[in-house]
Design goal:
7-stranded mixed β-sheet; alpha/beta; Rossmann fold
Length: 222
Protein backbone atom coordinates (compact mmCIF):
# COMPACT_ATOMS: atom_id res chain seq x y z
CA UNK A 1 0.00 0.00 0.00
CA UNK A 2 1.40 3.38 -1.01
CA UNK A 3 1.93 5.73 1.96
CA UNK A 4 -0.64 8.54 2.05
CA UNK A 5 1.43 11.00 4.07
CA UNK A 6 0.16 14.16 2.36
CA UNK A 7 -3.47 13.05 2.64
CA UNK A 8 -3.11 12.24 6.33
CA UNK A 9 -1.38 15.58 6.88
CA UNK A 10 -4.29 17.34 5.17
CA UNK A 11 -6.70 15.35 7.37
CA UNK A 12 -4.86 16.43 10.51
CA UNK A 13 -4.75 20.04 9.35
CA UNK A 14 -8.46 20.09 8.60
CA UNK A 15 -9.24 18.80 12.09
CA UNK A 16 -6.71 20.70 14.18
CA UNK A 17 -5.12 23.45 12.07
CA UNK A 18 -7.63 25.02 9.69
CA UNK A 19 -6.15 28.05 7.94
CA UNK A 20 -7.95 31.38 7.82
CA UNK A 21 -7.84 33.73 4.83
CA UNK A 22 -4.78 35.52 6.20
CA UNK A 23 -2.65 32.38 6.40
CA UNK A 24 -3.93 31.14 3.05
CA UNK A 25 -2.91 34.38 1.33
CA UNK A 26 0.75 34.34 2.42
CA UNK A 27 2.05 31.81 -0.12
CA UNK A 28 0.40 33.52 -3.14
CA UNK A 29 1.74 36.86 -1.87
CA UNK A 30 5.28 35.46 -1.76
CA UNK A 31 4.89 34.14 -5.30
CA UNK A 32 3.67 37.56 -6.46
CA UNK A 33 6.65 39.20 -4.75
CA UNK A 34 9.02 36.96 -6.71
CA UNK A 35 10.32 34.99 -3.75
CA UNK A 36 12.32 31.87 -4.59
CA UNK A 37 11.27 30.45 -1.22
CA UNK A 38 7.52 30.96 -1.65
CA UNK A 39 6.71 27.34 -0.77
CA UNK A 40 9.18 26.96 2.10
CA UNK A 41 6.87 27.85 5.00
CA UNK A 42 5.93 25.19 7.54
CA UNK A 43 2.74 23.21 6.94
CA UNK A 44 -0.51 24.06 8.77
CA UNK A 45 -0.04 21.09 11.12
CA UNK A 46 3.52 22.18 11.85
CA UNK A 47 2.35 25.73 12.47
CA UNK A 48 -0.17 24.42 14.97
CA UNK A 49 2.57 22.31 16.58
CA UNK A 50 4.69 25.44 17.07
CA UNK A 51 1.68 27.16 18.58
CA UNK A 52 1.20 24.25 20.98
CA UNK A 53 4.85 24.45 22.06
CA UNK A 54 4.36 28.14 22.79
CA UNK A 55 1.35 27.33 24.95
CA UNK A 56 3.19 24.46 26.67
CA UNK A 57 6.04 26.66 27.86
CA UNK A 58 3.77 29.62 28.64
CA UNK A 59 5.70 31.76 26.18
CA UNK A 60 5.59 35.50 26.64
CA UNK A 61 8.67 36.16 24.53
CA UNK A 62 9.48 34.27 21.33
CA UNK A 63 12.47 34.59 18.98
CA UNK A 64 12.22 33.49 15.36
CA UNK A 65 15.20 33.19 13.00
CA UNK A 66 13.83 33.40 9.45
CA UNK A 67 10.51 35.22 8.94
CA UNK A 68 9.88 34.50 5.25
CA UNK A 69 6.26 35.66 4.71
CA UNK A 70 5.32 35.44 8.37
CA UNK A 71 3.35 32.18 8.22
CA UNK A 72 4.96 30.46 11.21
CA UNK A 73 5.26 33.85 12.92
CA UNK A 74 1.49 34.30 12.94
CA UNK A 75 0.86 30.79 14.27
CA UNK A 76 3.23 31.42 17.20
CA UNK A 77 2.20 35.03 17.87
CA UNK A 78 -1.42 33.93 18.24
CA UNK A 79 -0.35 31.94 21.30
CA UNK A 80 1.07 35.01 23.03
CA UNK A 81 -0.74 36.94 25.76
CA UNK A 82 -1.74 40.53 24.96
CA UNK A 83 1.51 41.81 26.47
CA UNK A 84 3.68 39.19 24.74
CA UNK A 85 6.37 39.88 22.15
CA UNK A 86 7.74 37.94 19.19
CA UNK A 87 11.01 39.12 17.66
CA UNK A 88 11.56 37.77 14.14
CA UNK A 89 14.68 38.13 11.99
CA UNK A 90 14.65 38.41 8.19
CA UNK A 91 17.18 39.54 5.60
CA UNK A 92 15.10 39.77 2.39
CA UNK A 93 13.09 42.98 1.90
CA UNK A 94 10.55 41.18 -0.32
CA UNK A 95 9.78 38.77 2.50
CA UNK A 96 9.55 41.57 5.05
CA UNK A 97 7.04 43.42 2.87
CA UNK A 98 4.79 40.36 2.67
CA UNK A 99 5.15 39.62 6.38
CA UNK A 100 4.36 43.17 7.52
CA UNK A 101 1.19 43.24 5.43
CA UNK A 102 -0.04 39.97 6.92
CA UNK A 103 0.88 40.88 10.49
CA UNK A 104 -1.29 43.98 10.09
CA UNK A 105 -4.12 41.92 8.58
CA UNK A 106 -3.90 39.56 11.56
CA UNK A 107 -3.96 42.41 14.06
CA UNK A 108 -0.60 41.38 15.49
CA UNK A 109 1.56 44.45 14.86
CA UNK A 110 1.72 45.19 18.59
CA UNK A 111 3.11 41.73 19.37
CA UNK A 112 5.61 41.27 16.51
CA UNK A 113 8.88 43.09 15.93
CA UNK A 114 10.79 42.47 12.69
CA UNK A 115 14.55 42.95 12.73
CA UNK A 116 16.12 43.15 9.29
CA UNK A 117 19.65 41.97 8.65
CA UNK A 118 21.88 38.93 8.53
CA UNK A 119 20.69 36.59 11.22
CA UNK A 120 24.12 36.03 12.74
CA UNK A 121 24.64 39.80 13.14
CA UNK A 122 21.17 40.43 14.57
CA UNK A 123 21.50 37.52 16.99
CA UNK A 124 24.86 38.80 18.22
CA UNK A 125 23.38 42.26 18.73
CA UNK A 126 20.40 40.83 20.60
CA UNK A 127 22.68 38.67 22.72
CA UNK A 128 24.71 41.71 23.72
CA UNK A 129 21.75 44.00 24.39
CA UNK A 130 18.80 41.81 25.36
CA UNK A 131 18.07 41.82 29.07
CA UNK A 132 14.97 39.64 29.15
CA UNK A 133 15.23 35.96 28.12
CA UNK A 134 13.16 34.29 25.42
CA UNK A 135 10.82 31.46 26.38
CA UNK A 136 10.82 29.89 22.92
CA UNK A 137 13.03 30.03 19.82
CA UNK A 138 12.23 28.82 16.31
CA UNK A 139 15.11 28.53 13.83
CA UNK A 140 14.13 28.19 10.17
CA UNK A 141 16.67 30.02 8.02
CA UNK A 142 19.80 29.29 5.98
CA UNK A 143 21.20 25.97 7.12
CA UNK A 144 25.03 26.30 7.10
CA UNK A 145 25.12 28.50 10.27
CA UNK A 146 22.45 26.54 12.18
CA UNK A 147 24.90 25.57 14.94
CA UNK A 148 25.94 29.19 15.42
CA UNK A 149 22.32 30.36 15.44
CA UNK A 150 21.54 27.81 18.12
CA UNK A 151 24.48 28.74 20.33
CA UNK A 152 23.64 32.44 20.18
CA UNK A 153 19.94 31.79 20.83
CA UNK A 154 20.80 29.56 23.78
CA UNK A 155 22.54 32.48 25.49
CA UNK A 156 19.24 34.36 25.43
CA UNK A 157 17.10 31.60 26.96
CA UNK A 158 16.14 30.57 30.47
CA UNK A 159 15.77 27.22 32.17
CA UNK A 160 12.82 25.50 30.52
CA UNK A 161 12.94 27.51 27.30
CA UNK A 162 12.23 25.53 24.13
CA UNK A 163 14.43 25.81 21.03
CA UNK A 164 13.17 24.28 17.78
CA UNK A 165 15.14 24.01 14.54
CA UNK A 166 13.37 23.01 11.33
CA UNK A 167 14.54 21.01 8.29
CA UNK A 168 17.18 18.90 10.02
CA UNK A 169 16.50 15.59 8.21
CA UNK A 170 16.23 16.87 4.63
CA UNK A 171 14.62 13.81 3.11
CA UNK A 172 17.19 11.53 4.72
CA UNK A 173 20.14 13.32 3.11
CA UNK A 174 21.69 13.78 6.55
CA UNK A 175 22.76 10.14 6.29
CA UNK A 176 25.04 10.95 3.35
CA UNK A 177 28.43 11.60 4.93
CA UNK A 178 29.91 12.50 1.54
CA UNK A 179 27.28 15.13 0.68
CA UNK A 180 28.65 18.33 -0.83
CA UNK A 181 25.35 20.17 -0.27
CA UNK A 182 26.05 23.11 2.07
CA UNK A 183 22.57 22.87 3.61
CA UNK A 184 23.00 19.17 4.35
CA UNK A 185 26.46 19.76 5.79
CA UNK A 186 25.06 22.56 7.95
CA UNK A 187 22.36 20.45 9.54
CA UNK A 188 24.72 17.48 9.94
CA UNK A 189 27.06 19.73 11.91
CA UNK A 190 24.13 21.15 13.87
CA UNK A 191 22.67 17.74 14.70
CA UNK A 192 26.04 16.47 15.88
CA UNK A 193 26.57 19.55 18.04
CA UNK A 194 23.10 19.22 19.54
CA UNK A 195 23.62 15.54 20.38
CA UNK A 196 26.44 16.32 22.82
CA UNK A 197 25.31 19.75 24.05
CA UNK A 198 25.10 19.41 27.83
CA UNK A 199 23.05 22.57 28.29
CA UNK A 200 19.85 21.09 26.81
CA UNK A 201 17.70 17.98 26.63
CA UNK A 202 17.17 17.30 22.93
CA UNK A 203 15.85 14.98 20.25
CA UNK A 204 14.82 15.06 16.59
CA UNK A 205 11.23 14.46 15.50
CA UNK A 206 10.87 13.18 11.93
CA UNK A 207 8.04 14.79 9.98
CA UNK A 208 6.19 13.63 6.87
CA UNK A 209 3.27 15.11 5.00
CA UNK A 210 2.58 18.14 2.83
CA UNK A 211 6.21 19.24 3.20
CA UNK A 212 7.57 15.80 2.28
CA UNK A 213 10.07 14.09 4.61
CA UNK A 214 12.02 16.19 7.05
CA UNK A 215 12.36 16.77 10.78
CA UNK A 216 12.47 19.23 13.66
CA UNK A 217 15.12 19.28 16.35
CA UNK A 218 13.56 20.07 19.73
CA UNK A 219 15.62 21.14 22.72
CA UNK A 220 14.69 22.17 26.26
CA UNK A 221 17.17 24.29 28.17
CA UNK A 222 18.38 22.66 31.40
Amino acid sequence: MKPRFAEVDAYISELFAPEDEILLSIEPALVAAGSSLAFASVSPAQGKLLQLFAHMCGAKRILEVGTLGGYSTIWMARALPSNGKLVTIEYDEKHIGVAKKHFEMAGLNDRIEIKQGKAIDVLQELSENNAEPFDMVFIDADKPPYAEYFELALKMCRKGSIIIADNVVRGGKVLDETSEDAAVQGVQRFNHMLSYNEDVYANILQTVGLKDWDGMAIAVVK
